[in-house]
Design goal:
Layout (H helix, E strand, L loop, with lengths): L2 H22 L3 E5 L4 H14 L5 E4 L3 H9 L5 E4 L5 H9 L4 E15 L7 E2 L1 H9 L16 E5 L4 H11 L15 E3 L2 H9 L4 E6 L8 E2 L1 E2 L6 H5 L6 E9 L4 H11 L1 H9 L7
Parallel strand pairs: 1-2, 1-3, 5-10, 6-7, 6-8
Antiparallel strand pairs: 3-11, 4-8, 4-9, 4-11
Length: 278
């Protein structure tokens, strides 16, 4: 057998092994939202410790990438900080995948500023004008006479999608508003937090579980993000967090999701600053 033919034979064996592994569920692959990542990662570690016979891996490539992985069958559980889009459902079904949604936690998207910023509350109208570039100076919303540094998320982020829908495009007709091209784009929830914390004049947004003393949370329409306002729905930017599977969860994937929904799993959710569903 020639060297080139041998390489092709080995490559075919490796591909075959990968396909066989995926078919037999040798490893549960979890991917997706960086918002869900803090509690999902701890849940994976504790679940794996209690069930060493189960191989499970997790990464945080963003909601869009997680759902893409579910569609192309490289991901068993897609973590998502938004509902799956109808176009994604169509793609999934065309590839023989039937997306099944499980709500695992509640969250609030919180506008964030630097701790030294005197602004405490912003309306939807003000947030929209800030992110579309119509308002660009803090003095126009009760702050210092200083230019704003607008910080957003990349388009694969579920948090970006929710913010775009509920804030940037709020009240639009067919002509949808767009985020100002001057906005700095961050690739993860953690990067968003670091960016806002490091710039006195920055404004950004993140899930409530990421908010700490390095930044300042801003109320929306006079309502602060909290466990109570998320549960009663009074906080305007509250949302659900999801795990998507191909059909109703089964096998090791079901065992892991059941763990996340258990009392112990939901305690991980609340301990990481998010809001349990029970």
């Amino acid at each position: 057998m020639s060297r080139n033919k041998w390489k092709g034979f080995v490559a075919a064996l490796v591909m075959g092994a990968g396909i066989a592994g995926a078919a037999w569920g040798a490893e549960v692959v979890v991917n997706g939202s960086t918002t869900v990542l803090p509690f999902a990662q701890i849940a994976v570690e504790r679940f794996a410790a209690a069930h060493p016979e189960v191989k499970i891996s997790i990464s945080g490539g963003g909601t869009g990438n997680g759902i893409k992985g579910l569609i192309d069958k490289t991901t068993d559980i897609a973590n998502a900080s938004r509902e799956i889009k109808s176009s994604e459902v169509d793609q999934a079904k065309a590839n023989g995948v039937n997306p099944f949604e499980t709500t695992v936690a509640l969250d609030c998207i919180v506008p964030l500023v630097h701790p030294s910023n005197p602004v405490k509350n912003l309306t939807f109208e003000q947030l929209k004008k800030i992110y579309t570039g119509e308002i660009s100076n803090w003095k126009d919303v009760g702050g210092e006479n200083a230019p704003m540094a607008v910080v957003g998320r990349d388009s694969s982020s579920g948090t970006y999608g929710t913010w775009q829908e509920l804030v940037v495009e709020k009240g639009d007709g067919e002509q949808k508003s767009r985020v100002t091209p001057k906005a700095q784009v961050t690739a993860s929830s953690g990067a968003m937090l670091t960016t806002v914390a490091g710039n006195k004049y920055a404004i950004g947004y993140d899930g409530i579980g990421y908010v700490d003393k390095t930044v300042k949370a801003v109320s929306v329409e006079g309502i602060a993000a909290s466990v109570a306002t998320a549960k009663d729905g009074s906080y305007p930017l509250s949302r659900k967090l999801y795990m998507y599977t191909d059909g109703s969860p089964s096998g090791d994937a079901k065992a892991f999701i059941d763990y996340v929904l258990s009392a112990e799993g939901q305690k991980i959710v609340t301990d990481t600053g998010f809001i349990g569903i029970h």
